[in-house]
Design goal:
It comes from Salvelinus namaycush. One of its GO terms (cellular component) is nucleoplasm. This is Protein TASOR-like. One of its GO terms (biological process) is negative regulation of gene expression, epigenetic. With 159 residues, the protein is α+β, with helices and mostly antiparallel strands. The chain has 2 domains: 44 residues, no CATH class; 80 residues, no CATH class. Helices cover 23% and strands 16% of the residues. It is built from 4 helices and 7 strands; from the N terminus they run E-E-E-E-E-E-H-E-H-H-H. The longest helix is centred in the C-terminal third of the chain and has 16 residues. It is elongated.
Length: 159
């Protein structure tokens, strides 16, 4: 078994670790938790401890590992917006500027504001916008200026 301390590695820091050019063949754990490897007609047994020899991969070693794909969210994620935040004020300004009648400003009360994050909806939106642009719509027509409001089912009757 050939071992060496490595290139440019301080021996004092890694004195209990041996570096192998290849992983020792026929290495298997024994019944008592020790590692045994048969070499040249003999058996070498090493106890498992902090100072035991271990295989440390070199920079040139190649491993066959595939990175798993990231699963896309199929559901929308809701982000609650505090009524004291700047985002809330910005959204409230957009909503109030969209009223048909300016006198409606004091009529509505907004609570539990949430921003919806959905990759699927965003993808559909971008695709539809691209189609409209190809159909000859102007940038002013494609400008994002509207917000949609949903209310509680009980309060919808009162509207």
């Amino acid at each position: 078994m050939e071992s060496y301390s490595g290139d440019n590695i301080p021996a004092s820091k890694y004195s209990s670790v041996k570096y192998y050019k290849t992983l020792p063949s026929d290495t298997r754990p024994t019944e008592d938790g020790e590692h045994s490897s048969e070499q040249a007609g003999g058996t070498e047994t090493r106890p498992r401890s902090g100072t035991s020899t271990q295989y440390i991969p070199k920079a040139g070693d190649h491993f066959n590992f595939q990175i798993p794909r990231k699963n896309k969210e199929k559901r929308a994620l809701f982000q609650y917006v505090s009524s004291e935040s700047r985002e809330f004020e910005d959204i409230l300004t957009i909503l109030s500027s969209s009223y048909i009648e300016a006198s409606s400003t004091g009529t509505f009360t907004y609570t539990k504001l949430r921003i919806v994050h959905s990759e699927l909806l965003e993808k559909d939106f971008v695709e539809k916008r691209r189609e409209l642009k190809l159909d000859g719509r102007t940038e002013k027509e494609l400008e994002e200026t509207h917000c949609f409001l949903t209310a509680d089912i009980i309060k919808v009757k009162d509207l």
